[in-house]
Amino acid sequence: NCWYSRPVIPPIAATGINTATTTRLVAIMGAVTSFMAAFVASLGFIPLAILTCTASTTTIASSTTIPIASTNPSNESTFIVKPSIGNRINAPTRETGMARVAVFIPVAAMGGITGRLYQQFAITIAVSVAFSSVNALSLSPALASLLLRPAKPSRGLLGKFFNGFNNVFDKSSKGYMRITGIMTRKISRGMVFLLILSASIVVISKFVPGGFIPEEDQGYLFVNMQLPSAASLQRSDVIAKEVEAILATYDEIEYVTNATGFSMLSGAFSTNGGFMFLSLRDWKEREMTAKEISRELNMKLSKIPGAQIFAFGPPAIPGLGSGSGFTMMLQDRGGNSPEYLAEQAMIFMRAAMAREEIASVFTTYQASVPQKYMDINRDKALIAGVSLNDLYTTIGAFLGGYYVNDFNRFGRLYKAYIQAEPEYRLDESKIHNFFVKNAEGTMVPLSALVTVRDINGPEFTNRFNLNRSVELSGAPAKGFSSIQALNALEEVADEVLPPDMGYEWSNMSYQEKQSSGSGSIVFVFALVFVFLILAAQYESWTLPFSILLGTPFAVFGAMLFLLLARIFSESYESNVFTQISLVMLIAMAAKNAILIVEFAKMKFDEGMTLVEAALESAKLRFRPILMTAFSFILGVFPLIVASGAGSEARKVMGMALLGGMFIATLLGVFLYPMFFVLIGRLGKYEQKRELAASKESTGQSDNTPR
Question: End-to-end alpha-carbon separation of the chain, Å?
Fold first, then answer.
């Protein structure tokens, strides 16, 4: 398909650079621009560099069957795209680029944490696609002029491979045209198939649970310990050593840091609590993920008597809570006692554990912790001339410690505290050993001014939205997503909580509930924006429907592949990254359709019928569509096999993109020509063309709306 002519790029005499040198410089600029587009994508999300590099592929693939070539007398070949052919390539390239940018406009306008996640993808992909589109329209043709040469017969093993591939592809193309011809003429059957496939999306979506952000393997875990109320620090240390012995049997755990007497979940220091930080080995040095390790650990830790111990991972977004799973705030809205709140929390947790969606639910709140209540007789203190401030300071200093000052010793700074020796703080009977000065300087025993008695009460209380609250944390059961666990907890709350009790979501659970339903809104608005862009490009309100009717193919493929992937891993769910993939698939499916519809429109404007134009376009664009589609599919494949931190999000996104693009290409190449014919007949394109021709023959202007 090549012929020879004189170069159309004249030498640049002022700089002494000839045509070939100029072309090479332009080609180098094209390569640099492609790298810049990929680099911009990698700033936001590294695997997106793979996804966005396919933008310039459209032009190169589209020009493989275009008659282009010229050679100069010095046998230095320089290939130049003919202007008429270039115009044909520019239109679909421009339209696909604008569609891929427009699809992320509503995404970038979302608010909240979900909006921030969307915006990072939207800006990254939009900027990289803009770079790649400029490259595809301006610099890639120059690069093609250096790469394309007159076809020569290939010999040897490589030649046999190429010849065999071309023969198979030619036979496949003939079979493809036969099926496409049947589908194009059987429009009613094609529409029935589209309706069945759209209904299948609803059915499949019921089996793919929703979610927010997948729990990632970030390379470390937490372990929380809680002993019975008022357990001593020594007893907590014994339990901690038992836990460390179990952790030592795991080769996947590299380091263990123990903080006995502190719980990061409650943020309080208590003698009956403890917290551990587990540093895991590098991902390539272990076979188990952090989630698998925590589940196996919990089975063993639950067998340790005398304490409630469980392992869990960090939150998916740092700062949103102290761990993974769900967080629910159970509120006492009636102003009842702490004991009443603890009782209702226990009733709720027992009912929640009976649900199959819940693997664990726990709280660090305890309302009956043994305590010592010191009752100060203020009348006696006033008579004895003892200041209440001195009395409080003395009690605090002897029993709890009091900071005095700093001093330097051995080149270091030390803090000085005063406190009674441990043997004088064992029980309340030792209080007669403490004295406080009165106003006259006389030492008055504390036992004469205070009495100590035993009580029970909460060690700490939380308030959420001004109400006394209990924080409940937990994790969904294996095979269930976070949104299923939240729905189950809401059902339990409606069943067991009295009218004076309520609940609110916190941390990641709150964000998940806030973002519920936003994915559908974004998807619809993305469709609307793409439709408006295509309507402006084609100057038609009907022709864009022949492109967007293929969107269900991509959605069906994404949901089907996610459903099949759940057989191997429960991480595949309809979460934020799935929604981002669906938005991106709108543009990718539209790109395939544009390559057919644009050339079908050109052929129709040249005088062909709708069916002839559709079939001719399908024949011309079959190979370029497959090339761009498979380049995209191979580009997202590394996401599916990703490992390390953030791999779960990459796997979900990669699987949705792979399934959506594969099914959209597999079905779209057969049905896009039919959609063009369908919309053309509904829009009466042929009648309008005949009417415009008759008006032109009579000298009237064509003001017929399209």
Answer: 36
What does the alpha-carbon distance between residue 627 and residue 62 come to, in Å, rounded to a whole number?
9
Q: Phi, psi at residue 468, to the nearest 5°?
A: -65, 130
Q: Is 403 helix (H, G, I), strand (E, B) or coil?
A: strand
Cβ proximity of 205 and 574 under 8 Å: yes
Instruction: State which H helix or E strand residue 485 sits in.
Output: helix 482-496
Residue 472, strand partner residues? 328
Largest CA distance in the chain: 124
Residues in CB range of 181: below 8 A, 6 or more apart: 615
Please give the Cα distance from 640 to 656 (Å, whole number): 10
Summarised one tens digit per residue, pLDDT across range 412-471 is 999 999 888 888 888 888 888 889 988 888 898 888 888 888 888 888 888 888 899 998
Buried-state track 255-271, b at ≥16 Cβ within 10 A, e below 16: ebebebbebbbbeeebb
Cβ 41 vs Cβ 48: under 8 Å: yes
Which residues lie closer than 8 Å to 191 by C-beta, 6 or more apart?
Answer: 678
Only one residue has tokens 């992909």, namely: 125
Q: 305: helix, coil or strand?
A: coil
- Of 70-74, 290-294, 409-413, give the lowest mean pLDDT range: 70-74
> Is pLDDT at 147 greater than 70 in this prediction?
yes
d(CA 326, CA 370): 30
Q: Rounded CA gap, 283 and 529, in Å?
A: 42
pLDDT of residue 606: 86
Hey, what amino acid is at 17? I
> What amino acid is encoded at 599 in this protein?
F
The answer to whether 201 touches 555, Cβ cutoff 8 Å, is: yes
> What beta strand segments (E) does 203-283 contain?
220-226, 253-263, 268-280
User: Please, what's the b/e burial string for 64-81 (b: 16 or more CB within 10 A of its CB; e: otherwise)?
Assistant: eebebbbbeeeeebbbbb
What is the rounded distance in angstroms from the CA atom of residue 222 to the CA atom of residue 235? 20
Answer with the residue of higher pLDDT: 14 or 584: 584
Helix, strand, coil shares, percent, the chain, to 5: 55, 15, 30
Task: Give me the percent of the chain exceeding a pLDDT of 70.
Answer: 86
Give 487-497 pLDDT, tens digit per residue.
Answer: 999 999 999 99
Strands (E), 482-537: 501-505
Residue 229 has pLDDT above 70, yes or no: yes
675 within 8 A of 615, measured Cβ to Cβ: no
**Measured distance CA(326)–CA(507) in Å, rounded:** 8
3-class secondary-structure state, position 320:
coil
* C-alpha–C-alpha distance, residues 573 and 209, integer Å: 6
Q: Which of 617, 593, 591 lies closest to 604 in space, CA to CA?
A: 617
Residue 52 has pLDDT above 70, yes or no: no
Query: Mean per-residue pLDDT for 155-173?
Result: 83
| DSSP character at residue 531 | H
Q: What is the pTM of this model?
A: 0.75
3-class DSSP state of 471 = strand
User: From the CB of residue 21, how many other CB atoms can be counted at a distance below 10 Å?
Assistant: 13
Residue whose tokens read 């990703």: 642
CA 247 and chain centroid, separation: 32
C-alpha distance from residue 683 to each of 115, 542, 705 (Å): 38, 7, 10
| Range of weakest confidence among 153-167, 220-234, 283-297, 691-705 | 691-705
Helix segments in 136-210, DSSP class H: 140-147, 156-185, 187-207
The length of the chain is 706
